[in-house]
Amino acid sequence: MDARKSLWMMLLLGAACLPAEAAEPAAGSDRMAWFRHDKFGMFVHWGPYALLGGEWKGHRTPSGDEAEWIMQRFNIPVAEYREMAHGLNPVKFDAGQFAKLAKAAGMKYLVVTAKHHDGFAMYHSKVSRYNIVDWTPFKRDIVKELSEACRKEGIRFCVYYSHREDWDDANGYGNHWDYDPAKKDFEKYLREKSLPQMRELLTSYGPLGLIWFDRGIDTTAQAQRFIDLVHELQPQCLINGRVGNYAHELLGDYQNMNDNGMPTGGLDEYWETPQTLNGTWGYNRYDQEWKTPANVIQRMVEIVSKGGNYLLNIGPMADGTIPAPSAAVLERVGEWMRKNGESIYGTAACPVGQFAWGRCTVKGERVYLHAFQRPGDGVLRVSGLRNEVKSAWLLQAPGQKLEVSRQDGVAGVKLPAQGWDEGSTVVVLEVAGKPEAVLDPVTQGSDSPFHLDMVNGQTAGGAMKRFNRDGKFHIGRWSKPEDQASWDLLVSQPGRYRARIRYAARQEWAGRKFVIELGGQRLEKAVAATGDWYEYKSFDLGLVTLPKKGALRVAIHPAEAGKDNLMYFDSLTLEPETVGGRLGRLD
Ligand code: JFZ
What we know:
Shape: globular
Strand content: 25-35%
Number of strands: 32
Bound molecules: 4-nitrophenyl 6-deoxy-alpha-L-galactopyranoside
Distance between the termini: 23 Å
C-alpha cells in the first residue's frame, strides 16, 4: 500500500477510532445529541407489585429475581392481583424528591414505568380504569406529578411502556394462567389498549425525552405502528431498541444491552444498558444486596468508555418512599459526579480500549484517564495513544501539573501521593489533536490461526461494531466500498492459510459481492443467504498466502455500493494449511 493510501487508511482508521459521533448516521444525529451527551439516567420501576415487595402468600420471589414479575412468577389470578392493586396508596410519594435525587446523583433523564407487564397504569388513563387514579384511594397521577417535578429540576422526562406484555388484559401477551393463549386476539389488544395508551402518554404529559419500550414485539409491522405514532405526535422523542423484535434489525434510535449487560469492547452504534442497584427492578423487601457507590461509578465509567448510556434503577416502596440505601448510594455517586462530571458528560468512547488500572473517555483534545486501581509505582501507563501528551493534571487539582513520560510509544503519568478516589481517580491528558489510537496488531502463537472479529478489528466509514440481543456482537450497517472492517496482523508464520468467514445474511442480501484484501491479494466473493437476520454460518473461502513475516493488513468491504446491509459479520479465521502435517510454508 503506497504512502498516500496508507495515510488515507490511517486517517480513515483514525476516523474509525474517533468517538461514536463520527460514525453516527448524519440523519437523526441531532435527535440523539442530548442522549449521547447526558449519559446517565434514572430508571423507576413502580406499580402494585411494590405492595407485595417480593412475597405472595408466604412465597418469595427468588433472590436476584425481578419482583415486578411476581404476578407471573406465582401465576397470581387476575382477580386476586386486581384486588391487591386496590390497596396501592403511596401517601408518602413526593415527585420532587425523585427529581431532586436524580439531579443530586448527576442523572440527566428519568424513565418511569407508565405501564409494566401487569397492565396497571401509573397514570390517569381514559383507556382503562385499571390505573392509579381510578383504581386506588390515592387518586393522583404519578406520571403527571413526576413529569412536572422533572421539568422543574431540569431532568428530561421519559416513560417506559410495555407494549406487548400485559398479564391483566385477556388479549395481551403473557398471561397463560387466566387466559387461553389460543383465544387471544393480540390485534384487538394493540388496537384497544396498547396503541391508545401510547397515544395518551404522547399527548398528555408534555414533551417526552424518550419512550422506553420493552421486550420487543412479534413483527416489524407491529413495532412500526408504535414508531409511527411517536414520530407523528412527538418527532423529537427518542425510541429505544426494544420497540422491535430482538431478533430483527434495530428499529429504534439506539440499541439496548441485555439487562445489566456490558459489551466486551467499544461499540460504534450507540447503546444504553439498563441496570439495577440491587438484584431487582421492582421493590423487594428482602433484597438488600445494594451496589456500592464505587461500583456504580466504575460501571458508569466502563459504560461511557465503551460508547453507551447508563440507565440506573430505583424501585420505590408501596408508600411512595425511595429505599434509603438506594438513595444513599445515589447521593454518594452524585458527589463524585459533581467533581468529575466533565469526564463523563459529552464524552465519547475511548479509542484506545481499556487498561489494567482503569478506563478512558475522550472529549475534544482531552483524554480522561479513570484510574480504578493505583499501580504499584504510581504511574498510569497509556499504550496505544498516537497523540503527543502536552500536559496532565488531576481533574481535582488542575493547578498541579503531573510528570509525563513517554517510552516506546507508551505514555506514563505519575500520580500524586494525594487525591486518590475510591470510585475513579480522574487524570486529564491534554493531547495534540483529536485522540487517535495506535492499535496493537493481532498476533498469532506458533502455527495458530488468526481469529479476526469486531473486538480486535477497526471499522471505517459506515461500518459499525454493534450489538443485538439475539445477534450478539457483530459488524453491520455496511453497504458501500468505503464501509470497511480491517485488522492489522503481525505474521510470525508466513505460508498458506485457509480462510473461513462467519456471517449472517438475509435472503435479500444474497449475491452481494464482498472483497477481502490481504497481503496484496484480493478475494471477491458473493454473500450467501444464511436464513433469518442473525443466523450465522461459516463459509470456506479457500487458501490465501501470508507472504512474509511482519505487519500485514486485512480489510473486508462491499465490492460496490448497494442499498442494503452487506452482512452481519461475526469473524474471519485464517487457519495455517498444513501439508503432510507441516505448515504449507513459503520459506
Ligand atoms: C425487562 C422486564 O421484563 C423487566 O421487568 C424490567 O422492566 C427490565 C428493564 O426489562 O426484562 C428484560 C428484558 C430484556 C432482557 C432481560 C430482561 N434481555 O434482553 O436480556
